[in-house]
Write a structure and sequence with these properties.
Layout (H helix, E strand, L loop, with lengths): L4 E5 L6 H14 L9 E5 L5 H9 L6 E4 L16 H6 L4 E4 L2 H6 L4 H13 L3 E6 L3 H5 L3 H13 L10 E4 L13 H19 L7 E5 L7 H5 L6 E4 L6 H16 L1
Parallel strand pairs: 1-2, 1-8, 2-3, 3-4, 4-5, 5-6, 6-7, 7-8
The structure holds 1,3-dihydroxyacetonephosphate.
The site of 1,3-dihydroxyacetonephosphate has 14 residues, from strand 8.
């Protein structure tokens, strides 16, 4: 059984005061669902990880913390960067790696993403590896070719266990646009990703959880979660409101149980 997982990627949004307000709303609005039936993760900007870890420790909220990026060395002369050890040190358990915005705006290549994955795993962090095709690649029917290369080159020689990491399928054209693939189209890609892992580790082997991301909201989550191979969501815009993030979790978990 793969536990549904919902990740709020705040990207470059919110001040610390707004983050505190968000946590206060989460405490009031926390989904009343059996704790074992779902998992939630918050990915705030770096600067908020340490204070949020303290706030979460003092609260009743059961929620993991993710960084949105990480460097591939543990320490050294890399001005402006944050290492996996530093993330662990402040109580961060997860890290998003290879988000399309990092690939597009910061030139991250599959080779660099591989180094970051290796470093995160070495430090005991759980990477959330993002893959996905652009609109042009989709129109040229290269979706799987692109994703297969992102997975193969991102992994290279790494063979993390199924619970050591998460995968997020985020079609680039669906991010922040209000456009989404149909649930069936997303499911087809999720199944290809799952088959990729089965081909690496054996037909019967467990595979990592695969989240869908790209204009996912509390309104459309149920339809995605009804698909067999969609194990949760990586949400951007819709996760900025604690209410809508909680609604999304509730709708998503219920849809999975049906
Ligand atoms: P949106 O939910 O705003 O489309 O962003 C998705 C995303 O990039 C999450 O990582």
């Amino acid at each position: 059984m793969r536990t549904p997982c919902f990740v709020a990627n705040w990207k470059m949004n919110k001040t610390l005061g707004e983050a505190q307000e968000y946590l206060r709303t989460l405490e009031k609005r926390w989904p009343h669902l059996p704790a074992s039936s779902w998992e939630a993760i918050l990915a705030p900007p770096f600067i908020m990880l340490a204070p949020m870890a303290e706030l979460l420790k003092a609260s009743t909220l059961r929620i993991g913390l993710a960084a949105q990026n990480v460097h591939f060395e543990d320490r050294g002369a890399y001005t402006g960067e944050i290492s996996p050890l530093m993330l662990r040190d402040v109580g961060c358990r997860y890290v998003i790696i290879g988000h399309s915005e990092r690939r597009t705006y910061f030139g991250e290549t599959n080779a660099l993403i591989h180094k970051k994955l290796a470093a995160a795993l070495r430090a005991g962090l759980i990477p959330i590896l993002c893959v996905g095709e652009t609109r042009e690649e989709r129109e040229e029917e290269k979706t799987w070719e692109v994703i297969e290369r992102q997975l193969r080159e991102g992994l290279d020689d790494l063979r993390p266990g199924p619970s050591d990491w998460l995968i997020a399928y985020e079609p680039v054209w669906a991010i922040g646009t209000g456009l989404t693939p149909t649930p069936a189209e997303a499911e087809a890609v999720h199944l290809q990703i799952r088959d990729f892992f089965r081909s690496l580790s054996g037909e019967e082997a467990d595979t990592p959880r695969i989240l869908y991301g790209g204009s996912v909201t509390d309104k459309n989550i149920a339809a995605f979660m009804q698909e067999e191979d969609i194990d949760g969501a990586l949400a951007g815009g819709a996760s900025l409101s604690a209410d809508s993030f909680c609604n999304m979790i509730e709708q998503g978990v219920k849809a999975k149980e049906r």
